[in-house]
Amino acid sequence: MKAVIPGVLREEPEFARLFAGQSLSVLGDRVSFVAVPFAVLSVGGSASDVGLVTAAALLPLLLFTLVGGVWADRFRPHRIMLLSDLLRCAVQGTAAVLLITGTATVTHLVLLMALFGTADAFFMPASTGLLPLVVPPGRLREANALRGFVQSGGLVLGPALAGGLVALAGPGGALAFDALTFATSALFLSGLRPRGKTVDGAGGGILPELRAGWAQVRSRTWVWSGMAAMAVYHVVVLPAVFVLGPVLAQRQWGGAAGWSLVVAAFGVGAIVGDVCAYRLRMARPMAVAAAALAVASCQAAIIGSGGSVALIAALEAVTGVAVSLFFVLWETALQTHIPEGSLSRVSSYDNLLSAGLMPLGLALAGPASASLGVRTTLFAMTALAVPAALALLCVPAVRRLPAHLPVDGAAEPPADLPGEPVPGDAAEPPAAAADRVPAGPAGG
């Protein structure tokens, strides 16, 4: 039995508890990913309405994610995650009741998704900051890969489950299931006991602490350039997945069933990417991540290619590998190289400059496709996104960032300041190579 259970789950009970709760919650998220667009369409909404509802869930990131980062660095991050789960449970439960009773409108869904997004804005930086408090530094990549494995597995199981729930109980039934998973996650979080952490705040209120967090971002070229590339990916590429993909599916691929097949294929590829991230030893992980982001940025052109659903699904599986590799390696790099007392604030800037800006792309995707045509819009998205990812690969600090800090675990010095070395621009110290996580069996 031990041979098939990853060591980090056997040996780190707090991570195992976190992992169990988040695993079911991720499945609910994947069900919701499919159900929400069809919930909007089921109440008479248009493609623009799908974008509006999705944007409503993401817009609060612009308003609250920085505050969420400060709170997560100042207080216990798992308590913030617990409150977020309880609020999202209430939101999805309310949406489910309105849909099942036939009283839901697009306006209701917009308002509810705005509340959902507010809870998300506090959850995400807290989640990033929590992991180093339940996992030792040498196992962060392993833990992130396992979390990614569950998220990717949810992309395979979630659409299939969502298709069945939507067919049997409508989108409302699917969202009721999501509400139940949030309640379960909250139960696991209530029993979590992470270790204490070093507080690395400037004091004096939210603004000084935000300035201190921003100093951690701007002093590292690989961090701010990575955030810029991800902003392009979230604003330009992901609207193809959230808005235009379901629209094409509704028109040409047989509705939810066709879209679920594409999403599930992406999930299979993402699982392969997580296995690669778990097993492969990468001396320069951010260089691999940047190359993977360029592949991931091809998603819009693939969805709009006009190929068969089977061909599109197969190509989306390839991009799934790339997406998983990028996000596992990016999260691990932040958790490794950013001081833990500032990590949630840095993560909040990450969310703000990537997912927080996505509502702009979502709001424009529908009108742009109405004016230019869906396929022309999708090809234009790829033409903008791929060069941005390739530009990230050209940044020396990105290509040279080592996988590990020196063996003494000291925080890396600020980058790009006068008289200071750029972290990752020097060769990786010999001790770092010996400190790598051993390759092992992926998955459970």
Automatic annotation (TrEMBL):
Any coiled-coil regions, as ranges: none
Compartment list: Cell membrane
Membrane-spanning residues: 50-72, 93-116, 152-169, 221-244, 256-278, 285-303, 309-330, 351-372, 378-398
Pfam families associated with the record: MFS_1 (PF07690)
Keywords on record: Cell membrane, Membrane, Transmembrane, Transmembrane helix
Composition bias type Low complexity, residue spans: 418-444
Name of this chain's protein: MFS transporter
Matching PANTHER family: INTEGRAL MEMBRANE EFFLUX PROTEIN-RELATED, STAPHYLOFERRIN A TRANSPORTER
Membrane topology: Multi-pass membrane protein
InterPro entries for this protein: Bacilysin_exporter_BacE_put, MFS, MFS_trans_sf
Region: Disordered, residue numbers: 409-444
The keyword Cell membrane is assigned to this record: yes
